[in-house]
Amino acid sequence: MLSVIIPAYNEEQMIPKTVSVIDGILCDACIDHELLFVNDGSKDSTWDKIEEAASGNERIKGVCFSRNFGKESAIFAGISKAKGDCCVVIDCDLQHPPEKIVEMYRLWEQGYEIVEGVKTSRGKESGFHKFAAKSFYEIMSNSVGFDMSRASDFKLLDRKAMNVLLNMNEKNAFFRALSSWIGFKSTEVEYDVREREAGTSKWSTRSLIKYAVTNITSFTSAPMQLVTILGVIVFFVGLATSIEAIVRFFQGTAQPGFTTVIILQCFIGSFTMIGLGIIGFYISKIYDEVKGRPKFIIDKTI
Ligand code: UDP
Ligand code: MG
User: Distance from the CA of 206 to the CA of which of 29, 71, 86, 296 falls in 20 to 30 A?
Assistant: First the structure.
């Protein structure tokens, strides 16, 4: 059986449409399936819509969070509740073309354990958004060790891969990168990102920045090493200036002003603070992991 995991946050307008489209496509293709909606603490009537859909169709299931935990948590909740031999994660807004699920499923039947959906285009985005996304994926690709620029959450996972992901205790799990990191026999399916049909994107610039920083730091400690590198650079600059100052002192041409001193003070001060900030960030991540709180809290299921 195929489990289709659909995270939904304030998607009341999309639920009925998503249900009929995906269910229709999978029924036509004669694929035994379940649609598992994860209501990520929506503030609108998303959960009612899921209940409504579930009452008329036994293949539809729902998990309701006690509050908003974010898409990553919703995906992991979906994986933990899925009964299928494989699962597909797809957005609720139909931006990921549902026909591709069938293509992914056929590849799974041929023995592939992970089928990645890769974007051929990124859909409509503003200039700043494009630039930010590009920088984020460049950093991520470098730290994960493979190209992430076209990666998305739209992918099929075999039961083996699902179990591996479930056994990871990371609280800040970045699904997109982790599912490639675990390995297994994988292949790709290309798709074009579509326009969202109803509702609005759930990402504000602020939440995207937070998402980027969290995911980068959960995969690489490079920013911490950056502090060391900055420290070394500042040390050499300091050394050069000090030598100059000493030479001038003995020549009797020492600067009467404090320009150099002030500049150095400013630089060192700011580097120290940035450094402390970055280290603090990692400590807070360690703190989060040590507390061992669950990734999500389920309120009810249907
Ligand atoms: N989503 C979620 N929790 C959140 C934000 C988003 O479950 O806190 C879901 C949302 O309902 C959708 C998917 O994640 O199914 C992708 O969200 P969205 O379309 O807003 O992102 P975009 O396509 O703009 O990247
Ligand atoms: Mg979307």
Answer: 296
